[in-house]
Every structure is written in C-alpha cells, then in structure tokens.
UniProtKB/TrEMBL annotation, chain A:
Keywords: Cell membrane, Membrane, Transmembrane, Transmembrane helix. InterPro entries: Cyt_c_oxidase_su4_prok. Its main location: membrane. Pfam families: COX4_pro. This is Cytochrome C oxidase subunit IV family protein. The keyword Membrane applies. It is found in: Cell membrane. The chain crosses the membrane at residues 23-43, 58-78, 90-107. The keyword Ion transport does not apply. It is a multi-pass membrane protein. Signal peptide: none annotated.
UniProtKB/TrEMBL annotation, chain B:
SUPFAM superfamilies: Cytochrome c oxidase subunit III-like. Belongs to the cytochrome c oxidase subunit 3 family. It is found in: Cell membrane. It comes from Flaviramulus multivorans. Residues 1-325 form the Heme-copper oxidase subunit III family profile domain. It is a multi-pass membrane protein. This is Cytochrome c oxidase subunit 3. It comes from the Bacteria.
Length: 126, 325
C-alpha cells in the first residue's frame, strides 16, 4: 500500500492538501471538461467546423479533451501517478502504439472502401 | 563446513533477487495488464466503428438526431441524457476512489459507505443504458428502406421530422406475423411493421407538405431533402420495406451498421459495468464481513477499483466517438 500520494496536478500548478481533496478537485475538472464537450456538441459553433488536418476542428477538440480526461482518470483515480515510471510506460506505451496502428490501418482502409463505392463501378444508391 | 556456499554474494545487487522493479503487488500489476488487453479489445471495436464510418462517410447517421430523449420528459434534448450517464459514471468513479482512500486509512465504515454508493451509481448507469436501448429499439419516426438498403426519412417543408403515423393511415390487413407454432414449424419472423409500403405511398401522395430526406450529407453536414416529385419517385420506385425502430438487420436512423455497432459496443461496455457491479457487490460483502479488516490491507478494494475506473475510462471514449464526433 503506497501511502505517499503525489498531490499536485497541472504540473504543480495546483497542490492539494490531502488525497481526498485531490479527488474532488479532479472531479470538478472532469465535470467542467464534460460540460464543455456537451455544450460544444449541442451548439456546434460554425467557427469550429472548418477542416484541420482532414478532420473538423470540433472533432479534434473532442478527441483532445477525451485524452485529457483519460489522463486524469488514469493518473489520479487509478493512482498511476504514484506508480513507478516503468509500470507507467509499460501500460501506456503498449496501448498507445498498438491503438495508433489499429486506428491508422482501419481508417485508411475505410477511406479506401468509400472511394471504391464513390468512384468505382459499385452502385449503392438505389 | 565452512566451505558450503550459503549465499551468492549478490545480495542487495540488482540481480540478487528479491527486487521489485515495478514496486507493485502481483495482483495489482496483473490487473493493469488485464486492463491493457481489455483496452485493446475496446479500441478494436471503436476502430472498427471508425472503419464503417469512413466507409459511409457521406451518409452516416447524425448522433444528435438519434439520441434525443430523456426519460419522463417530452421533447428534443440531444446529448443531455448521455451527459447525465457520463456524469453518473464519473461520480461512481469518485466514490470508488474515496473507498480506496478510506481503505488506506483502514476505515471500515467509510469503505462500506463508499462501496455502497459506487454500486448504486453502477446500477443507475446500467438501468439508464437499458432505457436507452429500449428507446433506440422502439424508434420514433419510422422510415422506408430502399432496395439498395438506404433509408428514406420524412420531413415537412420546414425540415422538421414527420413520423409515419402523422400522415399514413393503416388499413385492415389479413397478413399476420408468422409464429413458430403455426405455418412452417420452428420458423418465425419478427414483428410486422404497422404500415405497408403501399400505405406510405398513398399517405405521401395525399399530404402535399411531406418530403423525403435521404441519408446523404451535403457539404454543410445536413441530410439532403428531395423535392416533392423526386420524393414520390424515390419512394415509388425504390421503397421496399417499412422500418420502425432498429435491430441488427434494419435501422430507421440510417445505415444498419450504426445500430449493429451501437448494440455491440455499448452492449459490451454495459456488460463490463454489469460485471463490475457484481464484483463490487462481492467486495462490498467482504468489507462488511471484515475480511480485509483482518488482513489489515484493503488492497482488494484497490484492485476492483482499478477495474471500475477502467470501465469509466472506456465510457469516456465511447461517449466521444459514438455521441460527439
């Protein structure tokens, strides 16, 4: 049982007095992020609909905010912050590299199949 | 016997044994590795969802239009209920981590309370998901499926969705659903739609203000609405099946794949939540019985906590990729 918790988040910007306080602090942060996502999802501001690197700007914001949320859930709720560097890397990099490859290969092929339907001789709209 | 080797002379050195490079117990480490492998399973599902979405990138359903219901309230509230479910799950994650924290202080009463709240949160989430499934399966507006498997929905001249029941009149039918007990034995079919395609065509002809909306997205991301002549032509020439609600074969909201992935991904996640609740209940009773009190270690609570947080973590991603993006 690791009693020593690291109590600062945002790279030391906020330091909590106790572990319980940190939990509530992280909850407030996660709630704010979720609220931002939902509000953007409902109103879909026109400014953010432009394409950035082949995807809508809004979608990039959603994905980045999701990864931010995932980081705080893993690091503070699952206490990854208190584990050794080796365990952190073992868990995170394994997942990150395999998932990135999976995403790349499937989205690339999905786009290819779309092109076949669109430009090829396969008729779908009837 | 002074020559007997009793030690290797490497005690305290890196390879001397007894080292714990990860400084984590066996159980906790294995839970982490299980979580990694489960995360890969879920990312496989979500990436497959992405594949299908990119395959039909110009005709995929708009999630905002699909998930618009809130229990006990009428009207159009996109996202609100899913946001509520997300919040419930994050909240139960918080009570779980509070239970783990209380466990570190060997405070049995607090662990019991927080475990109990976590279980309640999990049950609310599973219940909400069941409700969401029921609403999705029931459907709300109804649509026509074409020969090519595309979905034609109906809107009025202002672009508001029109339900089939608002302009189609069901006539008396002799055709009944084929059950296993009669007709061809041990062969059955699903529930028959309320209307036939002919009735829908008739309703469309008599209602001047109803138009057909296709699956295709225009450059602004809105679904294409056909003109009155094209609407009639499209339904008459290609209309094949009346679709109400969604199942694994047909889906009134758009591509059937959308419903398939909805059932599969949220179902698999819901199953994780369900099993998480069961494990939490087992641990909850162990806490009450004082098993961990005697052990002087609440690490078991920490381990199920990891699993429970993982379930929350997955939901964060499902929420983004199913409902937001």
């Amino acid at each position: 049982m690791a009693h020593a918790h690291k109590l600062e988040i945002f790279r030391g910007l906020i330091k909590f007095k106790s572990n319980t306080q940190k939990i509530w602090g992280v909850l407030i942060f996660l709630t704010i992020v979720t609220a931002i996502e939902v509000i953007l999802g409902i109103y879909k501001p026109e400014v953010l609909m432009g394409k950035v690197l082949g995807m809508k700007g809004l979608n990039w914001i959603f994905i980045i905010l999701t990864i931010v949320k995932a980081y705080y859930i893993t690091w503070d709720f699952m206490h990854m912050r208190d584990e050794t560097k080796a365990l952190q890397r073992m868990v995170v990099w394994t997942a990150v590299f395999l998932i990135l490859y999976l995403i790349f290969i499937l989205l690339e092929e999905g786009g290819y199949v779309f092109d076949v339907y669109k430009d090829g001789y396969v008729k779908r709209d009837f | 016997m002074s020559t007997t080797v009793v030690n290797t002379g490497t005690e305290g050195k890196t390879w001397g044994g007894g080292n714990k490079p990860l400084n984590a117990s066996y159980g906790k480490m294995m839970m982490w590795f299980f979580i990694v492998s489960d995360a890969l399973t879920f990312s496989g599902f979500l990436a497959a969802y992405g594949f299908s979405r990119f395959k039909f990138i110009d005709s995929w359903p708009i999630a905002d239009e699909v998930f618009t219901h809130v229990p006990f309230f009428h009207g159009n509230y996109p996202m609100i209920y899913v946001a509520f479910m997300t919040f419930i799950l994050i909240m139960s994650s918080v009570t779980m981590v509070l239970a783990v924290d209380a466990g570190h202080h060997l405070n049995k009463a607090k662990v019991t309370l927080y475990m109990f709240l976590t279980i309640i949160g999990g049950l609310i989430f599973v219940g909400s998901q069941a409700w969401e499934w029921a609403t999705f399966i029931k459907g709300d507006f109804g649509a026509i499926q074409t020969k090519g498997g595309n979905i034609l929905q109906f809107v009025d001249t202002e672009g508001q969705r029109v339900a089939l029941g608002d302009f189609v009149v069901a006539e008396h039918k002799d055709r009944t659903a084929h059950e296993r007990k009669n007709g061809l034995w041990f062969v059955s079919e699903g529930t028959l739609p309320t209307y036939t395609v002919e009735e829908v065509i008739h309703g469309l002809e008599t209602h001047e203000n109803v138009l057909v909306r296709t699956q295709l997205l225009d450059e602004h991301g809105h679904k294409t609405v056909l003109s009155r002549e094209e609407s009639l032509k499209q339904v008459k020439e290609n209309g094949k099946l009346v679709v109400e609600g969604a199942n694994l074969h047909v889906n009134e909201y758009g591509s059937p794949l959308f419903a398939d992935f909805f059932f599969f991904i949220t179902g698999f996640h819901g199953f994780h939540v369900f099993s998480g609740v069961i494990i939490n209940i087992i641990i909850f009773f162990n806490v009450i019985l004082g098993t961990y009190e005697k052990r002087k270690s609440y690490e078991m609570v920490e381990k199920v906590g990891l699993y429970w947080h993982f379930v929350d973590l997955v939901w964060v991603f499902v929420f983004t990729f199913f409902y937001l993006v």
